[in-house]
Amino acid sequence: MTVAIEMGHTTSGAPAALDLEELLATRLLVQGNSGSGKSHLLRRLLEQSAPWVQQTIIDPEGDFVSLAERFGHLVIDAEAHTERGLQVAGERARMHRVSTVLNLEGLDAENQMRRAAAFLGGLFDAPRDHWYPMLVVVDEAQLFAPAVAGEVSDEARKLSLGAMTNLMCRGRKRGLAGVIATQRLAKLAKNVAAEASNFLMGRTFLDIDMARAADLLGMERRQAESFRDLERGQFMALGPALSRRPLGLRIGVTETSPRNATPRLMPLPEATLDDVRATILAAPPPEPVRPQRRAPSSPDLLGQLMAAKSAALEIRPDVAETPISAEELAERRMRVDRVLHALMAEPDAGFRVVGVLYQEFVVRCRIEGLGAAVPDLDDFRRMLIRARAGLGSDMTNDDGWQDVSVRASILPEDMQGVFMMIARAAKEGWPCPSNAAIARAYGSHSLRRAQRLLNYIEEQGLIVCQLDGAGRRIVTLVELAWATAPGDPNAEEVPAEQA
User: Fold this and answer.
1) How far apart are CA 91 and CA 151, in angstroms?
2) Predicted TM-score of the model (pTM)
3) I want to staple 159 with a disulfide (CB 3.0 to 4.6 A). Which of 83, 110, 117, 321 is the partner?
4) What residue stretches are annotated with the AAA+ ATPase domain (predicted)?
5) Which of 422, 418, 407 is nearest to 460 (CA)?
């Protein structure tokens, strides 16, 4: 059965139809600058196709929750559910063929990526018997499939990018038809954008974006500047579900409206400066105490945590904090160091993601009764650098070591531990660390990467590497005149004094 849904009118005034069956097989990419009408286009598509196909919308701003009242979509507030709960919800939505809106409003970027990935994973992993056709609309897709790494963790980015790649590359056989909208193609991962066969290109101003849009539509480069002249709601269409040749169209009206409407100018309220001064400059209300919830990383630690005394885990805001003496502070630091050393003693600890290590570190600290003294993530990163370099607190307090810390600060944070490990070996007169030891300190298995790290640090003017007659490596720290003893760069074992 062929279902043609009307998206609006072409520039000549004829109805602009979209073949829904063909769309399910070929997917759709929408591009346009902010304010070009992308969300209006998606809303029109969803409203027209709602009676014919199951839908789900990944909604980062809560714009599409208004579809629920008119078309019966189930709104899922992602902030109120865990990642596992959203994954199960995605599977059940496919099984019962219920259209849904995943509302990600109120979450930060990393949690939006994690929860969207979990929900998309549930849709993708549904049993074969429930692979019914489904339209999966992702607004602001560049947030979930970024072309380059941002400020979010690598783990969250990989989860989200993997889910979006599965949707666009492998989703067709499972009945999932991806419809993604982005402000700029340059911000969207190429593997995700390349799988779409239908395109709707709206207003854009940057030369690189106009050129890429023209290439996708098969237009000549001199025609690319026409994208600057498009009005809000006007798009150039191409694809088997739309038109075999570039076609200009204007999106029609919608039955529902977004919650976040376009701002309108309105007169300012009539109030004197004295009337509002006291209100605006009044003291802010006290901030509520919101303890962070960190999931344990393993069932064994969770069992230990549940078995610990509840009194040690209680948060008692009514009890005034007592000043901590220097002896108590030193003892806390020793206990935190012991926890970190026990964590790093595990065989695979050097190769695990920092975020996962931090979660397990927090759990271990709470088991030790250090809930109020747990370092934050930034402090933990610095502690981890020192631990991977084999540094103790006594060495970091050494005056001679301060010069090493200053020099290390010009390197990227993930390389500082490698430099400090080499500096420690040079200060103690130990053999130069092998490539395996350097890779382990960096959190990698690649011996070539270890050699590239040394080359990079040497290019920064911090060290000088040389080989003796036996092929053993010697590293000298510039200006400090510290030099390591000769060491085999291909050795697999870490010397006992450096372990």
Assistant:
1) 30
2) 0.55
3) 117
4) 24-335
5) 407
> Which residue in 5, 81, 13, 10 sits closest to 43, CA to CA?
5
Q: What is the pLDDT of residues 74-115, one digit of tens each?
A: 999 998 899 999 999 999 999 999 999 999 988 889 999 999
Which residue, among 134, 150, 65, 49, has the nearest Cα to 106 in the 3D structure? 65
Q: What residues does CATH 1.10.10 cover in the chain?
A: 398-499
Give the model confidence (pLDDT) of 382-410 as tens digits: 787 777 766 665 555 566 677 788 888 88
Q: Could you tell me which residues are beta bridge partners of residue 134?
A: 54, 176
Nearest to 416, CA basis, from 403, 427, 404, 402: 404
Residues 6+ apart with CB under 8 A from 206: 184
Beta-carbon contacts of residue 299 (< 8 Å; ≥ 6 apart): none
Domain with CATH 3.40.50.300 in the chain: 4-251
Q: Could you tell me if 104 and 141 are in contact, meaning their C-beta atoms sit under 8 angstroms apart?
A: no
Residue pair 413/385 in contact (Cβ under 8 Å)? The answer is yes
d(CA 222, CA 457): 47
Helix locations, 125-222, DSSP H: 154-165, 190-193, 207-216
For residue 83, the SS3 value is helix
CA distances from 477 to 403, 424, 455, 481 (A): 11, 10, 14, 6
Res. 304: pLDDT tops 70: no
64's CB contacts (< 8 A; 6+ apart) are: 39, 42, 43, 46, 57, 73, 101, 137, 139, 258
Strand order in the sheet with 134-138: 15-19, 4-10, 243-251, 234-239, 198-201, 28-31, 176-182, 134-138, 54-59, 100-103, 74-77
Asked if 42 contacts 235 with a C-beta cutoff of 8 angstroms, the reply is no
Domain 4-251, second-level architecture: 3-Layer(aba) Sandwich (3.40)
Residues 237-289 have pLDDT tens digits of 888 998 888 888 999 999 888 876 666 777 777 766 766 777 777 777 777 66
Q: How far apart are CA 317 and CA 325, in angstroms?
A: 21
Tell me the three state secondary structure of residue 288: coil
Read off the DSSP letter of residue 239: E
- CATH class of the domain whose range is 398-499: mainly alpha
Residue 196: CA count within 13 A, CB half-sphere: 29
